[in-house]
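Page 47, continued from p. 46.
Same chain as before, 430 aa.
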Amino acid sequence: MKFSLKGQSTGKFYPYISQITPLMLLAFFRKIYLNNLKGVPTNAPVILAGNHPTAFVDPILLCLFLDPPIYNMTRGDIFKKPFYRKLMESINMFPVYRVRDGYATRDRNDEVFDYCIEKLRQERVVTIYVEGEHHLEKVVRPAKKGFARIAFGAFERYAQDNLQIIPAGCNYQWGDRPRDTTMVNIGPPIFVKDYWALYQENQALAINKLCADLEAALKKVCFHLEDPEDAPLTEQLLELHRSTHLFTALPIIQYNTPRFELEKAVCDRVNEMPASEKQGLKTETDAYFSELAAAGVSDLALMTPQRGKLSGLILFVLGFIPFIVGYLSSWPLMRLAHWSTYKLVKKREFIGSVMMGIGFLAGFVYYLLWLIVGIVTLHPFWIGLTISLPLLGWFSVFYREMWAGWVAARKAKFHPKRAELLAQRAKLNF
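Result:
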């Protein structure tokens, strides 16, 4: 049977998913920073060109927080089984077929390209993860040429002056664990019409230039290290930076803050640092973090003694009962998500996606069962408990984080080596 995308990826479940996924993200992430979301227009043909650190979290973030419905290109091997194909198509996912996934012919991708061009004609947003693979390294990899061929093909067919490519960067503190921090950035548009004259003269040159310009644009909205070997030093410097640039716990979602620019400046400084200076700083930071590890304290705890105020115990006492209820009720879900993820997943890039997905699906069934108990008993206590369980579960996580921070701060505040560690830290030139 001839392969066809006609009538597919209609996204019939997309509106419903976009309504319930915020609960999942608010539980999984400690902080979500969103910058320049209005940079993606709702009435123009857009290729949203993103980096791809994780398997599925990136599309979820972009689809949830950007206004127009988004059509996401994803790996074709996921679409092999009919059930998964229907599921993916119902949330606006469509396949791209790569040679390394076992697809030797181009006819399928020719139709995928036509599908994208048609969506652009309809002034939709088509997301293409232009690096061609997912990775958690703080490196922007060269853009694959497929997005450029789609862009020029669409302009050749319909000559839309407002056809644009918009860089989108999804950045994570870790990317492979819960209670993460993410920063989503939208960059300025690149208009295809500006490359059309060059394309008519020399197609290969125009494609290469567009790819190079997009790569440069992505480096402005993503963390990027010129030398991947600098990653350990950069992570240490970012930890030092975060200890002195604290964020508030609430609100979880924040818009257009300088958080990303401040942390990116750390990465950029490492890129610009002379090799000798970089090596000296690496030696100093390694020694400092070794001393921290030997003392059993963290840099954050060392720099925030105010988090260990004795008066904080009052809040912990007042919140203990709701913490216990939330912890005990959510424990089966957390254990299931953690155990299943590390049992099934081998690649770091899939850990966050799978853990969040299992937690969400299992949580839906779990809390539905609690709701049935409340309805059957018609007892106000059970009904009230059922309604409050998700909030209590989130509170239990928040409570444990605050308690761990309080204990760590108390330990660091009264540690016999505190003054020595602070003096060693003060000598770091970062």
